[in-house]
Amino acid sequence: MRRPTCGPSPSLAVGSWNARALLGYQGRPVTERTAYLQTLPLNKMVLGIQEVHQNHAQLRAFMKQIDSTLDMHTSFAPGRHSQVNGGVATISPAGLHAESEALLPGRVLRTAFRSNNQQLIYYNIHNFEIPNAAIKRISTRILCDQHLAWADPSKVILFVMGDFNFAAVGKLKLTVPESRV
Questions:
Q1: Which pTM was predicted?
Q2: Strand 108-115's sheet: what is its strand order?
Q3: Percent of the chain whose pLDDT exceeds 70
């Protein structure tokens, strides 16, 4: 039996990157981070960035150097806090219908991309100084989205990505073969 032929299917990569002060300087020049972003297929991917620092306008100006057609969804904590150690951004190709919601300003951004009857839900999380009450609220929201994805995986896909800052539990032992030393 002959398999049906299908046209090319669109693909979308998904990634996450803690830029460690993307718009600031912490031991690496901004040009190094720019060079890294230029290696990514940003016009074909959803990328969550943590530790953006500064604000939406400064990020927009920075990203124009790389690709001025990208859409950006951002969340920054109010005041100076974002400039020092915060801010998350979700970058996507232009033209995707998306709605974003900051579940915790500067730390957790939920972006839902919709196309026809399908939905990609992307959580961009920087787990740093998130209060316990907010963790419970955010976890409940993620679980609700998880139930949507389980109910109809052909229509809803869920990504929970970011820098979770969880240390490994228990004792870790790294063994390196002598031939590698």
A1: 0.83
A2: 97-104, 108-115, 118-126, 156-163
A3: 80
